[in-house]
TrEMBL record:
EC number(s) given by UniProt: 1.1.1.37
Name of the molecule in the record: Malate dehydrogenase
UniProt keyword Oxidoreductase, yes or no: yes
Binding-site residues, NAD(+): 10-15, 34, 96, 119-121
Pfam families membership: Ldh_1_C, Ldh_1_N
Source organism per UniProt: Limnochorda pilosa
GO molecular function: L-lactate dehydrogenase (NAD+) activity; L-malate dehydrogenase (NAD+) activity
Gene field: mdh
Positions bound to substrate: 83, 89, 121, 152
């Protein structure tokens, strides 16, 4: 059986870290692409040279050309600028729109049958842009944010309870901005609803921390944004597709009536497997949760309306 091939566009912090997780989990051969000369080649060679000691057996290549990305099974787009303290993700809109547009044109030519996972921010809007530019079906175009937002929420829950991260599950819905919706009612530790285990004030505090989780890292790093957890979250989605796992994950998906929304990409629970987004899973929301979700979608539609294709 031919080995899978994963292209990661953008060999910066998120791209290189995603490539690392993807290679370490032997999900497929990895091609790193960037406009900077030497960077994707150098990082790919360095990562490849870790294989004998780290114990993985895949090829890792770096390039400035899309030629070598040909016939990839999955393409991850991390190309673009990251925010600095004081900026919102939406401040990156026009610069990253230009980049995501040109990258999408290149990758869709080189790998017409791939699955596309968009990471560049503002990611809900950039996923919509990639969908429009690619003209691909909705099951093959998605964005990564919910896995990251949920892993942050899970981390905070586990830390508050002083229990293993393994036993904590949680869901965050909506756009990847400060209006995202951590779903407390659907969050559990060892199968027990967290509302039965933690006081309301503690839950409210970690919900707020989750919403601002990206900004917390930006303020600490000062010169860029998070990449370890984002890179690992990308690898989880790549694995779900390439290993046909049919996982239920939150992903940025195209909505055509689900959750009362149309013609927008936003984070919702999906079944992710060998056919990409196989289904958007609709769960019942309380009126308050529905209102919060609507506000979050509105916050995605606003910058979306500024895109000129
Ligand atoms: N969706 C999410 O949850 C997350 C999204 N992000 C976003 O991911 C993006 C990347 O972040 P970092 O890796 O930290 O930034 P970075 O600055 O470390 O890397 C970005 C890379 O993209 C490259 N690039 C720029 N234009 C390109 C083009 N046309 N073709 C190919 N490569 C190009 C740059 O040369 C650079 O190496 C940012 O927009 C950031 O906001 C970051 C973390 C989480
Ligand atoms: O906060 C940022 O700009 C990067 C990002 O999306 C995150 O870490 O959640």
């Amino acid at each position: 059986m031919a080995r899978s091939k994963v292209t990661v566009v953008g060999a910066g912090n998120v791209g290189a870290t995603a490539a690392h997780w993807i290679a370490a989990r032997e999900l497929g051969d990895v091609v790193l692409v960037d406009v900077l000369e030497g960077i994707p080649q150098g990082k790919a060679l360095d990562l490849q040279e870790s294989a004998p000691v780290a114990g993985f057996d895949v090829r890792v290549a770096g390039t400035n050309s899309y030629q070598e990305t040909r016939d990839s099974d999955v393409v991850v787009i991390t190309a673009g600028i990251a925010r600095k303290p004081g900026m919102s993700r939406d401040d990156l809109l026009q610069t990253n729109f230009g980049i995501v547009k040109s990258v999408t044109e290149e990758v869709t030519k080189a790998s017409p049958n791939a699955f596309l996972i968009v990471v560049s921010n503002p990611v809900d809007v950039m996923t919509y842009a990639a969908y429009r530019v690619s003209g691909w079906p909705k099951n093959r175009v998605m964005g990564m944010a919910g896995v990251l937002d949920s892993t942050r929420f899970r981390t905070f829950i586990a830390q508050e309870l002083g229990v293993s991260m393994k036993d904590v599950s949680a869901f965050v819905l909506g756009g990847h901005g400060d209006a995202m919706v951590p779903l407390v009612r659907y969050s559990y530790a060892g199968g027990i609803p967290i509302e039965k285990l933690l006081p309301r004030e503690t839950i409210d505090r970690i919900v707020e921390r989750t919403r601002k989780g990206g900004g917390e890292i930006v303020n600490l790093l000062k010169s860029g944004s998070a990449y370890y957890a984002p890179g690992a979250s990308v690898a989880d989605m790549v694995e779900a597709i390439l290993r046909d796992q049919r996982r239920i994950l939150p992903a940025i998906a195209y909505l055509e009536g689900e959750y009362g929304q149309r013609d927008v990409f936003v984070g919702v629970p999906v079944i992710l497997g060998g056919n990409g987004i196989e289904k958007v899973v609709e769960i019942e929301l309380t009126p308050e949760e529905q209102d919060a979700f609507q506000s979050s979608v509105d916050a995605v539609r606003e910058p979306m309306a500024k895109l000129a294709f």
